[in-house]
Amino acid sequence: xxxxxxxxxxxxxxxxxxxxxxxxxxxxxxxxxxxxxxxxxxxxxxxxxxxxxxxxxxxxxxxxxxxxxxxxxxxxxxxxxxxxxxxxxxxxxxxxxxxxxxxxxxxxxxxxxxxxxxxxxxxxxxxxxxxxxxxxxxxxxxxxxxxxxxxxxxxxxxxxxxxxxxxxxxxxxxxxxxxxxxxxxxxxxxxxxxxxxxxxxxxxxxxxxxxxxxxxxxxxxxxxxxxxxxxxxxxxxxxxxxxxxxxxxxxxxxxxxxxxxx
Length: 262
What we know:
One of its GO terms (cellular component) is membrane. The chain is mainly alpha-helical. About 55% of the residues lie in helices and about 0% in strands.
């Protein structure tokens, strides 16, 4: 009898422990999911603000840069596509929405780069105000994206880890999609030094560009009537004596001492 009572007590404690863990794990998943949804709503506000700014930006640029017709059409199309997806989505974004927003961000960046060729547009007060508002919006989107993705990572880790993954599957806690926008690739400019080269073992002398006949070209500003300087290699007849000019001719003003210690 006493053994049965002890067994029942242990069983009741185990049930209470499992129920307590289940409640705690469920509430933890709910809390993480709500945090993900809340952080996404902050981004969504800024995205909708960008939807409102883009039509004004397009009309302003159209009046000064008629050659950017294709770029403006692409921005308008991507803006309408992203706004349509936003109107039919739930509390968190889908991968399709994230891709549309990424393409829209890239199109806006390309437009801002292309308008550098239009000085009149860059001095337009309305355009400058729109540019400033878009820059602030993009900064807030970037900050909100980092916070949102951090919450998504924590939530997805919980839904995929054992044993909470069994609870997540039972109560339909689905994985959240990341909202990522890839930065524009930065490439280094190609540097072409033409025919400039350096001779190895010649003390770093710079070679002159060659003309068609193979004769070294004269430096800029060189008088054609002057004789080009001749460079002759140094020759040595005997150890310790440095020769100049013709072979065998000694410089009387300079001799190396025969005994370095003297």
